[in-house]
Structures are given as C-alpha cells and as structure tokens.
User: Fold these one by one.
Assistant:
Number 1:
Amino acid sequence: MDPLSKVHAAIDGALPAFQRRLEEFIRIPSVSAPGFEPLQVRRSAEATRSILEEAGLQNVRLLELAGVHPYVAAEWLDALDAPTVLFYAHHDVQPPGRVERWKSDPFEPVERDGRLYGRGSADDKAGVVMHAAAIAGWLRATGAVPCNVKVLIEGEEEIGSGHLHALLERYGRELRADVLVLADAGNWTVGQPAITYALRGLTELTVRVRALEAPQHSGVFGGLLPDPVQALARMLAALTDEQGRLTVPSLADDIRPLTPAEKERLARLPFAEEVYARVAGLLPGTRLVGDPQRSPWERLWMQPAIAVIGLDAHPIKGSSNQILADAAARISVRLAPGQDPARCQRVVADLLRRCAPWGVQVEIEFGRDSAPAWMCEPSGPAFAAADAALSAAFGVQPVYMGVGGSIPFVGPFAAAFGGVPAILTGPADPTSRIHSEDESLHLGDWRKHCHAEAILLAEFAARLRAPRG
C-alpha cells in the first residue's frame, strides 16, 4: 500500500472511535454566550485537549486570557523543508434555543437516518474531531505528517471572537503558518463539497424605547399614553420596505463593487427557489424578500442584511392589561465586503432615532464586537490543493461559494500572517440547521471530509514546498 492508502485505512479503522468522541463532546453544553455556565466551556476545552492529545499532537495546551473562554492549541513540527498549516475550528456552541422544539435533547446526540443530531454536531465540534482524525490517520499509518501542523480551537467564536486581537498579540508568533484551514464552513449540498471564499461581516446595536416612568393601566390610560412597544415596532418597520429591501439611507455607500469575475462566478451558480424554501423551512405562502434586481446569491453573500434577533417587552405568559414603560430590540447587521462596521452602526442608529414617534425617548447601545466582511480570490496553489483534495474524497469538484454568516477569526489571522491563503471548508450542509433546533451532521460527508483533510496535507506538501536552490 502507498502511504496515502494506509492513511485512509487508518482513518476508516478509527472513525467509529472518533464518532464516539464526537458524541461525548456534544454532551458538554459549551455555550459561550453570557448567562450560561462558563465552566462548561472550560470542560469543552479540556475535552478538546484530550482529543488532540489522542491524535498524537504535541505541546497540547490551553491558551488563556483573563476573563476569556479558553482556546486550545497543539502542534506537530517535525516535517523538514515543508510548509506549516494552521488548522482552526471552535469548541463553543450556540444556545439550544427552544428546547421543546427539538426532537431529542440538544445535548444528547442521537443518530437518525445517517445524521447525528445535537447542538454543535455540525457547528463546529465535528470540525475539531475532523482535524484530529486526519492528523491521527497520518501519524498512526506512517509515523509522520507531510506538513508541519498547528491547531487552534477557539472557545468564543459564537460570541464574536471579541478577544482575538488580544490573543494574536500574546500568541501570534507561535501560531504563524503558511496557510490556514478552517473547518467552520460547509458543503454546497449533501455529497457536494464547497470552498468558501467570501464571508459577510457583522455588527449589532440595541435600541431601547422609553415613554413612561412605570407601566400604566391600559384601560385608564389607553388612547392617550404612547405605547413603547408600538413605537418600537414602527421604528423597526422603517428598516425595510414592502419587499424586504433595506431602506437605511447611505447604508450601502461603502459596499465594494463586484468585479466582472466575481459577478460571473455568482451567475454560474444555480438557485432553485423551491429547494431553498424547503431547506429553510419557509412556510406555505411566505415569500422570499430583498431586491429582485440582484441575484439571490448576491443578496445572501455580497449585500448587507438586518435581522431583529431579540425583543424585550412583557412575555405573553403572565401579561396583563398594561401599557409598558419601555421596550427594546437587539439588531444584527450583516455587512457586505468593503463596509465599515462602525459607520453602519451609526447610519442604522440615525434612522431609528429619526423614526421614533410621539417623542418617546430612544437609547441606543452599539455592540462592541464587530467584524468586517472577508473576501479573497480563490486561486493559487493552496486553493488548487484544496480543490484536488475535496475532488478526490467526494468524487466531484467543489463549488466555490460565499457564506452570509461571519467568522471573525479569518481576516485578522490571515492579515497577521502576511496575507496567507485561508481555505474554508467544513462538513455542515444546508439541512444541518446550525444555530437552530435539530442541528445535525451528515456522517457520510463528515467521513469524506476527514479523508479530504488527510489528502490536503499531502497536496500542501507537494504544492507549497519552497523551491530548492
């Protein structure tokens, strides 16, 4: 057997054990958001350390910053005259949301019809174990890895990577690499891999509307006193028009125009509205929104979007006939390439203040953790290596795509290392329902990604090796 065949055999032999490790990993409720138990995120970091140690990596350690959920780092640096690859994933997860809407306990993994269900199954604990499986395959089959390997597993990605710059200041030198591989993206569809070359940015703000010193009886005062909830609703409605297009003046002023090549790349991608609606769980009769003059993929990846992700008023349960004193909303703004997060916060806030009716008081707090969009040209030897590896593992060439979400890690790390290429892949797919109820991982695609990463290490060694003098 050639070395790579031995590696594939080693991965397949160990995959049941790696799946068990993934299931144990999912059982740790490592929600990094405020209000959840931080010790669970530390438990997850310790589990990550164990997984990487079992894979055969060296110098496995927790990277600590005061008041920050732990990162985990590891390495194997014994490959002479070879490039260095930094593998990234994150071990923190989103809150479970409405637990009663899950078909099973979000933190008790369940396998159904070839998919593994549980919070973090696809986003991104599968990525952590995937990195470990690929590296372990090489070490167990051959005793070596074709490239030098570093691994960084983050503990605060789901809350915006707010301490990333501090991490780079302290640990940047020991994390330097020639290429980044991030397992926090996904496939185009089940069985069809993808390489992500564009990510939207992200910022947020919270708006609070006040009208009264205290709630008042809706019968005694209704008809004269302003209702802060209705005032807030009017303000939020001003953010979009009847078609769901953004109506924030000057918000789009700093969007970087697409190049002809980028437009052509988008135009080549098919969009089946009925399939998209089904995958998204769109209810019958409900329509897609946005500017019909732009393609769906441009709207999703290359244009800003606004979502109201939280509302504070009185819950329906326990409510009574009161006019509330105040109401608040948390607003998420996805940013297109070229947009400045701070400027976008300001123009959204300006519109909200102008639209406030009845003289209600408006307080706006800007979120501190923002990230600009990231975009690269997916060409060169690193992308050729990724294309070859995914094609070999899946039997079809990958799709080059953008993602409407944000991974704050990517841009700062690539820039800190001199603009090194960043390869974004991952085992999620459009039906994985990451950040939603019944998150799941397609186990067949996960296996293929484990093999693809093993091949990728060989491809990097062949394509990125410095030329001999």
Number 2:
Amino acid sequence: MTATAFVGLGVMGYPMAGHLATAGHDVTVYNRTQARADGWVARYGGRSATTPGEAAAGAQLVMVCVGNDDDVRAVTLGDSGVLAAMAAGTVLVDHTTASAALARELHAVSADRAVGFVDAPVSGGQSGAEQGVLTVMCGGEPAAFERARPVIESYARTVTHLGPAGSGQLAKMVNQICIAGVLQGLSEGLDFGRRAGLDLDLLLATISQGAAGSWQMENRGGTMARREFDFGFAVDWMRKDLAIVLDEATRNGAVLPLTALVAQFYGRLQRQGHGRWDTSSLIELLA
C-alpha cells in the first residue's frame, strides 16, 4: 500500500484514482468541484481534501490529471499547491497532456525541493481509464520513474520510460499527430465508400484485416459509419493537444502540414457546436 494523492477527478482522473483505491492504495483526492470529490469518496473510500496541498500532505506519490498548463501550475505551485506540501524523497507524477516546457519547469522546481518528477501523459481515452488499460508515456529521472511505475500500473497496460523530463509529453505529441492523420484518412475513406455505394459494415470488416487496419478503424469505423459521436475523446481536448503539438513544432522545426490542416478541421467542428463530440467526428465535415 502506498499513500497517494490524486488531484483532478475529470473523466480520466476519476476512474484512474478509483483503480488506485481498488488496488489497495491509501488515496486522498482533490477536485476543484468538491461535490465530485465527495462522490468519489462515497464510491471508493479514502479521503477528500479542500486544497491540492492538503491532499498531498503525507503522500509518497502525488498524481495530477487536469486540463492544461495553467491548470497544472495552479495545483502544483504556490502556497496551496502540492509541491508546497510534498516531503523530500516523494514523487510528483503529472498525467495531464501539457507542454514539454512545463514538464521541464516542474522537474526543475521539484528538484529544488528534492522531490522526484515524472511527466506521464496517457493514451486510451475515457474507456481506457475506466478499464485500467491506459498507455502511459513517461519522462523524468529513472529513479523517480521506477518508484512511480508500480503504482501507475494500477490503471495502465503499458508504462514506458522514454527519457528525461519532457519526453513523455513529446511522445504524447507524436501519438496525437498519428491519431489525427489516421482519423482524417479513415474519414475520407469511409465517405468515399459511402458515395461509391459500398456496404460500409462489410467494407470495414474486410479492409480492417489488411494493411489499412488500425485501432481507430476497429473501434471507431462502425460508429463513424453510423454518425455516432456522443462519446469518447472530445474534439475540444484534441484541439488543445494539437495546439501544443504545433507550438512545439515551431520550436523544433518539424513540418506538420497534415496535423495543421486537421487542427483547422477540429476548429470548424468546435465552431459548429460539436466540441464535445468524439474526435472521429471529422467525417461529418465531409457529409
């Protein structure tokens, strides 16, 4: 049993923290909306705190899963942030999809306090979090990673250390670049097939067994064909993630024409009021 704190009980953090409790860890949670934290405690046990720092006091591992860079700073820094309460030798794990620059910043601040830091964004979406089968991409010192890994495995299928601080975030950017391209290609292919008069269910069952097969085709192809999007990883989140990707590309010189185009397409969906739809809703722009 490890004394842990989990800060941020959104659609990802809520089940992730739940898996920690189910695995037998001693969990204290914090959420900006207290009612959600109270609901989590009623379901899983443990305790809730009124500030991030209160949640982190006495914890050996502190997990954060919030919205963006500013949200991470709000719960980690300052007098009520987790770092103010964390003891030397403990480890801070940031599961937020954020910038690599923020990861390096938090690594430096944590090191000044003798606290380990791991940037650990996840892939697998809400269903992956609920089932405890997330892919976790980690950056940071190997020693901090090894201390955190057994606990992270409570809600992960794969936990990989990819290099120094920021490497996890950079890996998540590659992940999002690949997903954006695959979904746009899948959208165009299915729209083409529909216009050509093909049976889309039969088409998907056929081509998914060949070189075109992918997780997106297997798990989203059918719902895309049926125009079902009220679930999954939201357009709003993907648009935020791709903005981080494109900002990083400006710094490292990567050329991402397809990613930039798909980011614009997600912007169109947002302007149409579909920011909460699944990312596979790109196909609606072709209808």
Number 3:
Amino acid sequence: MDSDGSGVKSAERALTILELFSRPNCALTFTQVAEVLGYPRSSLHGLLRTLTDRGWLRLDPRTRRFSLGLRAWEAGQSYRPIATLIEATRPEIEQLRSSVDGTVHVAVLDGGDSVCVVPGSRRVAAHTTGAGRVLLAQLDRSQLEQRLDGVLHAAGALTDVESLHRTLDLVREQDWAEADGEHAGGVSSLAVPLRDRSGSVVAALGVAAPVPRLETHHRDQALQALRAAAERLTPRLELPPA
C-alpha cells in the first residue's frame, strides 16, 4: 500500500466501479462511467483497463460499452452461504410457485438493503418490502438505525423512524410482515422468517403480487403456505459461516 493512501483510494474506486456495474443490466461507455463517478479520466482509463484485463469487466467491441465480466460471476458462485441457501430452498420454492398466486422469493439482509437471491439477484431498501421488514425486525434499535441512517426517504415508504420501530415491533410479535406498494406501486408483499435449527433467522421467504391478489382472503392463504414451507425448511438450513 502506498504511504500516501493512494493504494486505498484506488481500491475504493475499483470497488465503486464494480458496485456501479452490479446494477441490473448495466452497460456503460467510458464517458458515461466518467460522468456518473466523476473520476479523473486518466485514472479511470487505468482502472477500467485493469478490471477488464483481469476479467471483472468486459468491453463489447461493437458498442464500446463495459459490463460485468465472467470473473464477477465466478466470484459470486463461490459465495457458499447463498449457494447453500438457494439449494436448500429450491424444492419448497417450486412447490410454492404452483400454489401461491405471485412471485415467490428468498431474501437476505445486506446493510440496509434486502437482497433477493431467489429468483435472480435484486437489491432494494429493506424497509420497503415484507421480506426486508422481517429481516430488519431481527435487529435491535441501535443496529437498525445504524444500518438505515440516511436511507429512510424513499417515496411512499415509512420515513419516520418511530413509525418504523412500531411496525417492526408488530412484525416481531406476529412473526410475519407485509408491505403495500412502498417499493413498487400497486404491488403487495408478504414474508415470513426462515430459521435454521438453532432458531436463528437466516433469510426471509416471501411472495409479491398485485395488491388485489393479496387482499384479506388470498393473503391468509398465502401466509399459511409461506409459514408451512418455512417450517419444513428449518431442518435443511444449516448454513456454513459467511
């Protein structure tokens, strides 16, 4: 590491670039990357070239757009806790898809975000979804406010910290959560915790659907199905340490 800290700065910039390209369907030209990140063009050229040479990014020779490379996919596949979680939940997910009228998903908490790992990979603010609220409810007050510092501002979402605490108190009491349109207008979500044999919550199991599909009667049916699936999954959720 350089004594003046430039090594740390370069590492931070490289990681920021990878995080930028981790957004869904992200493909950007050099000029677009420079405009988004505001890095000096000389250093950005070097960073993009290095990341491309090492396989973390790829450059389409026709469009001259950068996107994530194969090395990023390989690294993701090596993260065993998520791979194990996906493998363990797959049979129940398939069964739920045939009995629940909505998109069935499994999510984990990363900072203040809920990351949907089944299906695909999608990151949203945790306090805006049922699955995210299930996961946030496992934190104490100080942990919660630290993770959500500066993010409680999404349009239509719970923006008052005290209101969020009251909502999460209810989630803990009833052991399930719901959200109505906070993340996506007209879409409701329900979720229950997924626990391992020790009783620790390792993920959330949820379903999302247009609001009319999850109104009272259908909501109760979906919630019952989610709870039954979560109970069946508990013996299988012996995840390796992260």
Number 4:
Amino acid sequence: MKKQIAKKRKRSPRVKKKYEQARTEIIEVAQRILLDGGVEAVTLASVAGELRMTKQALYHYFPSKEALLRALVTTLLDEEVNHLISAVEVADSGNNALGTLIRAFYDHYIGRLNAFRSVYCQSQLHRTNEMSLDKATIHDEINPRTRHLFDVLEERMAGSSASKSERERVRQLAFSAWLAALGLMTMLGVADANEDPLIHSDEDLLRMLSGVFDDAARQ
C-alpha cells in the first residue's frame, strides 16, 4: 500500500493575519504578567486565563510553554534594540553615541527589571528548563538583532570612510559600552531583589560610565 502524505493547507492571507494577531495578543498578555509578577507567574494557565481561553486553544499558537517564553524573550529584545537604536540615531554626535546607549539601556529597563531578568538572567540560571534558549533561537532570533544594533553604532561612530581597523575598534568599544550598561542593570537588579541600594546613585554611575566611553570614542 502506498503511503499517503498529508499536505498542510496553506493559510489564506486573512487567516494568517488573524493568526499573527492572536500570537501578538498572547505575547502582550504574557509580557504584562511577567512585568507584574516575574517569570514564575508566566504560565500557560495564567496567560490563557487572562485571555479567557483554554490551555488547549493556546497550544494552537504556541505548542509549549518553552515556545511562548522564547517568543516573549525575542519580543523583549526587539523592544530593547529598537529603543536603543532610536536613542543613538538622535544623539548629538557619534562621539556621544555610547553615553546615549548606556543611558537608553538604563531608561528602558529601570522600571522593568523583570523584563531585564528574563532576557539576560533566566537562561543562565535555568539552563535545563523552559527558560533556556535553544541554539536555533540564539542563532536565528537573538544574534541578528544584536548585530543590527552594533551595525548602527559602528556606522554612527565611524562613518563610511573609516578604515577596517578603526571600524573594529569602534565596534569593540560599542560592545564594551553595552556590557557596561548590562552590568549596571545587573547590579541594580541584585540591589532591588535584596532591598539594598548601591552605595552610589544611579545618576552618578550613569554619568561616570557615559563619560568614560564618550571620552574613549573621541580618542
């Protein structure tokens, strides 16, 4: 007997649009739950309850909790990258781009520490459960977004006439500034979790980091 291969019917444009709208709404609800209660509060049951749908209906859009959380993380990263690029593009000059980057990173996450923790902390704390990011997600979703950010920074700071070595220096400097911003937010997250404020004010730390990297960019 010949094997019959079932072919999936292609979704019409209208059905595809409704499907993507539903996925977007689900992610938006998951993000609200995350910001209010942390990553532990994001479950299929809590998201389905907010949307007044069953968990089984949710599986139509996300086959597992892992898939939903990965989509949530990439959405959060999209928001971050878009925010940083918008800030850098309106900076006074390329020499101020790194200070602008650091402050924009801080502004984006200071009131959304649960979002920051989900993007940058959870996968290393939970490498074997649903919060870990698979290699395909990192390669296809995460890396292109961060590369685009550094492409913009490189162009803003170096310009089209810069040499290859200058471009490499600028890119490394931009990456270091981003790491500094990430480190600052990590410490602020630790301080928040332990209700033990850092000895220096946020503004003092931002001024110091921004000055260091803007001075380096002018050299």
